[in-house]
Amino acid sequence: METRKVQVTGGSTYTVSLPKEWATENDVSAGSVVEFHAERDLLLLAPQQENGRVEGSLDVDGLEDKHELTRAVMTMYVSGFDIIELEASRITAEQRRTIRDATQGLVGLEMIEETTDRVVLQDLLDSSELSVHNAITRMRLVSLTMLSDAVEALIEDDDDLAQDVMQRDDDVDRLWYMVSRVFRTVLRNPTAANEIGFPRETVFDFQSSARQLERIADHATKIASLSLEIGEITGETADLLHRLESEALAVPETAMDALLAEESDEAVELANDARARIPAVDDTAREVDGEIREFDPQSAQVLGLVVDSLSRTADYGGNIAESALQKAAPRPQS
């Protein structure tokens, strides 16, 4: 940390000098234009960017594994690159298909140039057009509906509904990557935080909660997949599973209400309510575990995994409640 004394010039203008080492590293010299970003009691300074577009390149020579190449594209996207250049001595047809599939799974990313040795991807959405609030609201709706439908598919032995649940996981993943991209962008660029309209702390709370919703969607997909392995569930076991599902879903539902509440007092009340619901979920889970002991070993194992996923859903809701409490807490002054 360096300190500078504020001076007054012309009788009314406050001036302060810049550290020479910082200026040199960031190509700031006489005549350069810098940007100031006010954030509560902080004033952030950054060199002005001419076009605001962040470019990155990646050598994909020898990167033939589909999953590795997909992960590489997604990593570049989440890291905040607006223009992604993928280069190789020769990009194979299989690599092109993988890149195209990965691009379709990411919000705003399009393939704008394609040659034998180069593929260029560009994010066509401005930061101001991305609503992280709308994204997590949509994630909430899709992921929690997925979980409810997955349990319904399990109890009713509805394979078509189970397949539909598994397909919807792609929608949640797409939104999760977008929220992660916005989060990393506002960390790097204070201008983006102003354009999005939320303080960086709030974007962090949203990103943390979005991660929990993405995990809930993964467990919904897991339950849907498990439902294909056993037949219809009836009687007391079905009733207990319905109850467990209802109690488990109530935790993230209430926690998300807390996270999105505008008033701090309301957010704290809802968050504490969400956390207080978790013990009831644990009690019902133990009841279901006792009931399924009478099943054959394979069915008992499958249902045990379902119970675990529903219990974890409540725990993830508890994590969202923690984020809501942090968001509602008073901000310390710097």
Quick description:
By secondary structure, the chain is an alpha+beta fold. The chain is built from eleven helices and eight strands.
Question: Main traits of this protein?
Answer:
334 residues; 12% strand; flat; two-stranded antiparallel ribbon; four-stranded mixed sheet; 11 helices; single chain; alpha+beta
Commentary on this structure:
- The chain is 62% helix and 12% strand.
- It has a 4-stranded mixed beta sheet, covered by helices on one side. A two-stranded antiparallel sheet has the order 1-2. The protein has a two-stranded antiparallel sheet with strand order 3-4.
- The chain has 11 helices and 8 strands.
- The model has no long low-confidence stretch (mean pLDDT 89).
